[in-house]
Write a structure and sequence with these properties.
Strand content: over 45%
Radius of gyration: 33 Å
Low-confidence stretches: 49-58, 85-89
Number of helices: 4
Mean pLDDT: 87
Length: about 525
């Protein structure tokens, strides 16, 4: 019995040892397989059908984010593009007795707006827009500016983004002698990643200086593309088509030198890294005779119907038109009694067309453009004097519901309002003086497809700033004049478009990428 028990124990021990050996062998074999598989995953690429394709764009969305902080660049007073003196003093270019003024205003829920000389110095002490009467209901902050030595940069912060809230500004400069004899004006320009311009003929005696400012803390490179009148498509420029603008700096390019011999040019300036602010200063000479100067502002988006208020009786008018594809454009004079057709033209695609419309007839308050496909358009208006002339640029616009305009000190203005729609509109215009105090309010009826002229003094005595509430299809602006030029019988032409007081937004692109671990 004991012998049998002993034999059973020895058998069980052998079976246990064998089982243990098998487990060890299986474990070793499993480890070898795992290591081999791991090595294979590292070295070999899995079959495409075994891998889920990551979706990079399927979750892509575009969001418009309202801005509560933004910047505007207000151009320096008109200056000569080349201030170096060469040759006999009798033939040297001179700015003459150039003078200027500027005014900035904040409407609605604006937390603060600071104004700096641009480029901004490290130890810069800004001016601040302020409300002279915190107890009134106008809620308007103002500041008189100085653009004599430099451009001005406005850093604005809003409490909330809503229609009727925003910061705008304008400048005007004038001279009764020298090569800048006449008047020029410009509104302050918000920053953007891309700006477009329509510019006049790049002929002998014309300077078209593109001035690009980069108020950000990061340098950026710019692509400049130009279309002309001689053929469709982009022009090969005589100078470089790429500019680099340092952080907080400026860069310039003479468009007339880069694309000479065109009857008009369409220019696009695109920034790759940061928003920029750009304008074009145009100066025209005929031998030693000044033929005017002005600042060209960026165009609004292309549209089917646009108005150019501020084209008035006696103006010599040339319209510059650009379209992506061939289109038919009907141009009409706008009067207080309706539209009067001036000319119908066919515009080829990707090519600028210059349309000479002659002199604006009696009763003209603006120019109207109706196209079969979207266009950009701008009118050049000229006035002639004794041995001298001046011109201004009036951009085509489609209208906005809330907008404003400020009239620089030492200048006078007449307002022109144009109703693009086929329905009568009643607009509300409010006036303020240079300190921000309300001067009055007036409801103005503008019949369908007509225009109205308004004197700011009719809104209220001392009115220098105005806001307008209207339907979407109301476009307005102001023709400026200056007393010393009028009394000296110096030809003058200057125009200020109304500036938007609608919420500004940026497009933000977001994409759901499954390759990114959240």
């Amino acid at each position: 019995m004991s012998q049998e028990l002993s034999n059973r124990k020895r058998g069980g021990s052998r079976r246990h040892t064998a089982s243990k050996v098998r487990r060890v062998l299986v474990a070793l074999l499993t480890m070898v397989v795992i290591l081999a598989a791991f090595a294979a995953l590292i070295v070999l690429k899995p079959a495409g059908w075994l891998v889920d394709s990551p979706s990079v764009t399927s979750g892509t969305t575009v969001q418009h984010v309202s801005q509560t902080q933004y910047g505007l660049l207000c151009p320096q007073q008109m200056t000569l593009a080349d201030d170096e003196n060469f040759g006999d003093s009798e033939y040297q270019a001179t700015a003459g007795n150039i003078a200027s003024s500027a005014l900035y205003a904040a409407f609605g829920s604006v937390y603060g707006a600071d104004v700096y000389d641009y480029p901004v110095a490290d130890d810069a002490q800004p001016g601040e827009l302020s409300d002279s009467d915190l107890l009134d209901s106008a809620n308007v902050k103002t500041l008189a500016g100085d653009v004599t030595k430099s451009a001005q940069y406005i850093d604005a912060k809003l409490l909330e983004t809503k229609s009727g809230t925003g910061v705008i500004g304008s400048m005007a400069s004038w001279a009764t002698s020298g090569d800048l004899k006449g008047m020029s004006a410009a509104s302050c320009v918000p920053t953007a990643l891309s700006d477009t311009f329509l510019l006049p003929a790049t002929q002998t005696g014309v300077t078209e200086q593109l001035v690009v400012s980069n108020p950000s803390q990061k340098s950026t490179s710019l692509d400049v593309t130009v279309y002309g009148t001689k053929h469709a498509g982009k022009l090969s420029l005589s100078t470089s088509s790429t500019l680099t603008v340092a952080a907080g700096g400026q860069a310039t390019l003479d468009i007339a030198a880069a694309a000479p011999g065109q009857q008009g040019v369409y220019v696009t300036v695109s920034s790759k890294e940061t928003p920029i602010s750009s304008v074009v200063k145009v100066i025209r000479m005929q031998g030693l005779k000044p033929q005017g100067s002005d600042v060209v502002l960026p165009l609004q988006a292309a549209a089917l119907t646009q108005a150019m208020p501020g084209v008035v009786k006696g103006d010599a008018v040339t319209a510059l038109v650009f379209a992506q594809r061939s289109t038919t454009v009907t141009l009409s004079w706008v009067t207080d009694e309706g539209r009067v057709e001036a000319k119908t033209v066919t515009v080829p695609g990707n090519r600028v067309t210059a349309v000479d419309l002659g002199n604006a007839p009696d009763g003209t308050l603006g120019l109207f453009a109706d196209a079969t496909s979207e266009i950009n358009i701008q009118a050049t208006v000229s006035q002639s004097g004794s041995g001298q002339a001046d011109f201004a640029f009036v951009p085509g616009e489609s209208g906005q519901q809330a907008s404003g305009l400020v009239i620089p000190s030492s200048t006078s203005a007449s307002l022109q309002l144009v109703n693009l729609s086929d329905n009568d509109q009643t607009v509300t215009v409010r006036g303020f003086d240079a300190s921000g105090k309300a001067t009055g309010s007036k409801k103005i009826q503008v019949d369908a497809t007509t225009g109205v002229s308004v004197d700011p003094e009719d809104i209220g005595a001392g009115t220098q700033m105005l806001t307008c509430r209207a339907g979407k299809n109301m476009v307005w602006g102001a023709r400026l004049s200056q007393t010393s030029l009028s009394s000296g019988k110096v030809a003058q032409a200057a125009y200020l478009p109304a500036s938007s007081l609608e919420p500004q937004s940026r497009e933000v692109l977001t994409a759901n990428d499954q390759r990114i671990v959240h």
